[in-house]
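BUG: 3D viewer hangs when loading the predicted structure for this chain

Environment: internal workstation, default settings.
Expected: structure renders.
Actual: progress bar stalls at 90%.

Input used:
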Amino acid sequence: MTMPTDPMEPRLTVRPSIPSLLSGVLEDVRLLVRQEVLLAKHEIQHELGKAKRAAVFSVIGVGLLALGGLLLVIMLVHALQALTGLPLWACYGLVGGGLAMGGGGLLARGRSRASEVDFVPRKTLATLKENAIWMKDQAKSVRT
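Structure tokens produced before the viewer hung:
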């Protein structure tokens, strides 16, 4: 049977050994590195998703440009020629130029979406810096 300890008695504090402290720090570093790799992977997957969405807008823009050009160019050219009396070749040039400008606008939108994609895992870099500072502080406290 053990006797309850008196709260007024002085207690001996056992300080962990340097090897056990270093072992704990190394285990923490290993865990942090593993977590940082997972964070970087998640961030890169997120950015790839944004890149895919930008590509979809660009592809749809190009597809609509081509489809619109194929279906409307002949009708518009002949309508313009009938209304203005311009030569047929000039009407083709005017209609083709208008379609090219519209398609260029859609491609510019896709390009601006693509510029939002950032493949540098900024959050991971920030937490790596924080972790480096923490590890430096831990190493200092082990030495003292």
